[in-house]
Amino acid sequence: MKITFYGHFCFMVEHGGVRLILDPFLSGNPASGLKPDQVQADAVILTHGHDDHFGDTLEIASRCGCPVIAIHELAHFCASKGAAVHGMNLGGTYRTEGYSVKLTPARHSSSVSDNGQLLYAGEPAGALITMGGKTFYHSGDTALFGDLKLIGDLHRIDAAALPIGDNYTMGPEEALLAAQWVRPGVVIPAHYNTFPGIRQDRFAFASACEEAGIRCAPLLPGESIEV
């Protein structure tokens, strides 16, 4: 499994010719290094509806002819805009050729912007992506909460992306504890430095992880790891 970071909380996960993009906030984030019209994907996976995660979902899904996989209410919104969708709910797993997606709880909020209004977009979620026998955990925006340990107990997680930005999500100290609970093969810090209010030092977080015996990959946009 190849995992590529495209800034903020956007990741591309691929194996065996299948490519999945998660939370494609690209055109609104010049640090991503990737334009929406450069994306080739077999599905768009959303953790929640906020603009800095929903991003270029509809454009990518339309151009690639691929479905949007999301919590039921958010999938319904995408369908109302003409997208092919697969709606899910927390705890459920969608299995299809080449990959599976399981939605996990997250402690956050979720709304989608539509003509200047904020609409309820269902529960926020994390996503467990399994391809080629490997599992990537994208926690989505979340506070620290006890069930993160349960997620780690129930699944063998080869890589996990966790937010460290604080203010809107957990900060680096709590993310370190989350990493200890989830026990991934490698942790990738995300959701930091995009806006002034979420400035963090990725190397300080990586150092704290290493001291705790956790491998950390503080990727820059466009960088990849393989697990």
UniProtKB/TrEMBL annotation:
Q: Does the keyword Hydrolase apply?
A: yes
Identify the keywords attached in UniProt to this record, alphabetized.
Hydrolase
What name does this protein carry?
Metal-dependent hydrolase
Q: Which organism is it from?
A: Paenibacillus mesotrionivorans
Lineage of source species: Bacteria, Bacillati, Bacillota, Bacilli, Bacillales
